[in-house]
Structure formats: C-alpha cells, structure tokens
Amino acid sequence: MPIYLDNSATTATAPEVIDAMLPYFSEESGNAQSVHSFGQRAKAAVEYARRQVASLINAAPGEVVFVSGGTEADNLAIRGIAEAHREHGRHIITSKIEHPAVLATCEALEAMGYRLTYLPVSGSGLVAVEDVASAISDDTILVTIMHANNETGSVQPVEEVAELVARARASGMDHLHFHTDAVQSVGKITVDVKRMGVDLLSLSGHKFHGPKGIGALYVRKGTRLGKLFYGGHHERDRRPGTENVPGIVGLGRASELAREQFGERSARLRELRDYFEREAIGRIPGVLINGDAGRRVPNVSNLSFHGVDGESLLIALDLKGIAVSTGSACASGSLEPSHVLTALGLTRERVRGSLRLSLGAYTTREEIDYALGVLEETVAKLREMLPAGGAELMDPTAF
Amino acid sequence: MYSKQVAEHIANPRNVGELESPSGVGDVINEVCMDRIRLTVRVDGGRLSEAKVRAQGCPPTIAAASVLTELITGRPVSELQTLGRADITDALGHLPPAKKHCAALALEALREALDDIARRASQDDPA
Q: Vertex A53, ends A7 and A5: CA angle to 5°?
C-alpha cells in the first residue's frame, strides 16, 4: 500500500478544495479584472478567498496578497523591504536554519551590498531572542525568522522577537520590520498575525492540502514594500499579473478547512506522531529525536538512526511504498548535509542517519504501524551490513 | 535518481557477513566520505567459491558491495582481475555520475582481496 509520510514537502489537495476550484477552470473562467459579469464573478471569488485566508491568520482581507507560493512570498517580503527602506539602512537579520527561499534571497542581497546577520541556533534548533536583540543596530530594516522549521518542525520564539522589534520601533527605529516564513506552521499550529505581532508573513497553499502554485503574503496595513514584478495594478499594486483564480479559490477553501478542522486535526496528528516516536525509540535501538521535541509542529518527526544512512533508509522504504525524506545527501564523495541539522551542531554521523516523517490530514494509524514495521526491519538489515565494530555505533550516547 | 537494482540491493543486501578463515580480505575506506567496504572471500581450486561483505556508507556503496559478491562468486580467480568499474555499474542498472566512485570503492575492495589471496599463497608456498 502506498503510504505518504512526506507532508512537509507537499500535501494531497483536499477533495473539497478540488471541488471548489473546478468551476473556475471552465464555466467561471473570467479574468478578475474584466468589467463584464464573468469578470465580476471571478473577482467576487478572489475576494471571498481573500476573506477565507485572512480569517485563518486573523488578518484584514486587504492585508492578504496572493502570490505564486512560499518562495515568491519570501522573496517579495525580503526584497520588498530591502528595496523600499534601503535609504534608512541596509542591515537584515535572519537565522542559519531558514528555508532556501529566505537564505538564498538574503545571500543575493548580501552580494548587492546589504549587510546580513545569520543567527545561530541552539542544539534543539531554536534562535535565542537575546541574539536577535544584540544583532539589531541602527541600520537594521528587517528581521526575518521562520515560524516552524521545515526539517525539524521546531517552532521559533516569533512572538518574543516581535515584541523586541516593537520595542525597538517604539524607541524610534521606524524602519525596522519583522517577517516570518510560516509555510510549515499554517494549518498545524495557531498562526495569528495580530498575536504574533509580525509585519509580514508567508504561507503556501500546497503545504496544507491546498493546490500547488498559490500562496499569500500577509502585509500589515501601512507597510511600505517594493515590488518583484512590474505590470498592472493587481493585488493593490503589490503584485501584478492576472489572478490565478482557481488557485486562489483553492487556497481560500483550504484555509477554511484548516480553520474548521484545525483543533481536531492537530490533536490527532500529535497523538499519531508521538505514538510513532515512542514505538520507534522503543523498538529500534540507537534512535534520537532531532530538534526541540516539545516545541514543534504536531506533524513532523525528525529522527536519526545511528550507523545507518538516511538516504538508504529512504530508498528501502520507498521500495515498500513508503515516502519519507532525509536531510542527508552525499554528492561527489563529499557530504553535503542538511544546513539545518548542521546548524544544530549535530555530529556528521547523526546528520547522515537522519530521516524526516511528516504526517498529513489523511495519515492513519495503520499506515504508521506499517511504516514502523518496515523501518524496524530495514534498520536491522542495514546495521547487520555494518563492518565489524559497527554494532557499538548503536549506542546513542556516543552518537 | 537510483535504479530499481540499487534500491533492491539496499532493501535486501546479498551475502552479508564475514567469512571465518578467508582466503583473502579486502577492507577499504573512502577517506573523503568515510564509506567503508569489508570483503572476505574463499578460494577453492582456483575458483572464488564464497564471498561475504559488510559495508557502511551511502546507498550506492551498500549496493555496489552487495552486487559485487554476486558478480564474483563462482568465477575463476584469474578472470576477476579484469573485472572493471563498468561491470559493477552495469549490474546496478546505472549510477549517477557523482556516485561512480562507490563502484570504484567496491572494485578496490576486490583488488585488495585478490592481492591478499596472492600474498597468502606466496607465504604458504615459499618457493
């Protein structure tokens, strides 16, 4: 049976979402900018979806900008602030464990002459609020720290960072902004832009059972932001281009489902994830949890299996129909391990033995049980393969 | 990225273990990534009768070590000198270009085992 445990990579689009989208490919195929009735209905659908998304994150509808996905949302937030506020400063603070959509954008700005601070994280993968405080200087225009990490699921102290930014702003740093990439947290834990106190927040539809190719950037009212693209006056002049009406409708419906089912879904996933980890650790020796076991989204488990290569596990599990992912990848004979797990200060062996399972709304207990059985058998086989001396690798204290 | 054959050898590695009193041992390490293959073989009447292997490292290293034992078992030792990297990659379907060195490591383990056989033979037969 095919078992999909890679929901941090992407999720299946919910049937309710597909149903909501379908008319907008055919009978309701108007351009939301057209004046005629087709256009008006498309426009109404876009605005309805905007309210659905806004409601999920407690924003005002006018603060939601539809974009093509998480990467564009991150680019628009970071480059938009950098461009609009460069006369007031060229310093940006981020962390070492951000998604490439943030890190590569920051590196591109660094190459253009911006000053970047990449904050370290603790062994459990959390940014220290004090580190953010001491990094802020007179020329800082943006702090961008992710909400939940895509590899470990660890949840960053975003509210505390926002308070810090608010205090700095109150003391006269008018041009300091705070962005968070919430692509991995929306739909899994409470994401409330007011309570979090962020100026900008990225989200992506396909990470919570919406369609691919659609996302949104929350832009707090009054935030001055540069553009990535030039064209028409769509999305309140923040993002030109004909609206992806089916995608937007799908994102709206997925947001509504997430809001309705949030509590029940999260509790069920947490119980399943915790069950998986208890069983894995109980049945397989030499297994450790990576990241902060307490402070994380409920659907992600990142484990390291001592003495075993994560990629080998992934391949063997795939052969049995189970899809997972790994932070370890070896190319050209030199390890290029996960920048996230490396930033946690984990040993090379531990990074190499890492495997991420991420659960979704449709994951069942039966699937978890089957995956546990295959995992146990595969780890045993691969460990039997270890050269003499390899057995002692199974002591997690030496890991 | 990887062939079905690689996946199959990862899921079910062949001839896993270590022979007691082998005719030759090849134990090699890739110093860059620390992948390791330990091959033990037995020779009977000029033919490689048995091979056991252990390996640690990335998937193609495990798969190359596993498939090597299938390629060499039952063959005359004299033929094994000509076994090349391509024989291993062909048996695995294919390997990504960046992973060809895993086949090279398996081959190195074989060469070392063959050298060990020759060395032990010359020690047993001080002509």
A: 5
